Amino acid sequence: MEATQPPSTPPPPPPSPEYPVALSVEYPDRDLNRVSTAFRIFAVIPIAIVLGSIGGYSGEWANGGSSTGVAVGGTGLLFIPPLLMILFREKYPRWWYDWNLQLLRFVNRVGTYVALMNDRYPSTDEEQWVRLDFPYPDANRELNRWLPLVKWFLAIPHYIVLFFLYIGLFFAVVAAWFAILFTGRYPRGIFDFVEGVIRWHNRVVGYALILVTDEYPPFRLTP
Questions:
Q1: Tell me: the pLDDT tens digits for 67-112?
Q2: Rounded-to-integer distance, Cα 213 and Cα 135, Å
């Protein structure tokens, strides 16, 4: 009589391929500064002014005998120049890539600081607790020269989903604010959700705004 063989365990599903725009935020497994957390909205003002002054637009035009000037600050991410270079030259200048990468890292350090994910003050150049990276694209072989013209349109489903995720993120950060004030700790479940929303946001930015990949962003919070 043959012995009954136990059913074999099915192999685990293959891991999801990692999207080219990868972000992770180091979880602060310690007590956070409650005073810094309580007044974060005021503490962030100086570095927010620095961030808002990067890039932007200034111009002047004449109207009769007078002239009018305007200056607008912005995040300074390059969109139109890479679009034109990919479209007409099939090229993505390396220094434009470096600029967008470093500036986006800075933006995320400030953003995660506002979201209370760390109590260290954001640096203008050190990576600190945020890890953001995406490979330098070979525009001639890896990027479709016509796709940048419609990426903003193709990403509309993500804009809709992110709108609702941003609402959830707001209430999650408010809940984390109270949790830190009373316990000194950032609840891990809330932290993972906030990190996931920020990760999703950066994937859409990489695809539709700074144009470093043609791979459509996945609809997930996880890596």
A1: 444 333 345 899 999 999 999 999 999 999 999 999 999 999 999 9
A2: 9
Is the dihedral angle over the CA atoms 100, 101, 103, 105 positive or is it negative? positive
* CA-to-CA separations, 219 to 81, 158, 161, in angstroms, rounded: 28, 8, 9
- Amino acid present at 16: S
Residue closest to 132 by CA, chosen among 195, 209, 194: 195
Cα–Cα separations (whole angstroms), residue 70 to 58, 60, 87? 6, 6, 30
What are the structure tokens assigned to 91, written together?
Answer: 């090229």
Q: What is the residue whose two structure tokens read 């220094």?
A: 95
Q: Within 10 Å of residue 181's Cβ, how many Cβ atoms?
A: 13
In the structure, how many helices (H) and strands (E) does the chain have? 9, 4
Bridge partners, residue 60, by sequence: 69
Q: Which amino acid is at 67?
A: S
CB 148 within 8 A of CB 154: no
Q: What is the pTM of this model?
A: 0.85
Ranges of residues in the chain with a pLDDT under 70 are: 1-17, 55-75
- Report the DSSP beta bridge partners of residue 148: none
Do residues 34 and 142 make contact, with C-beta atoms less than 8 angstroms apart? no
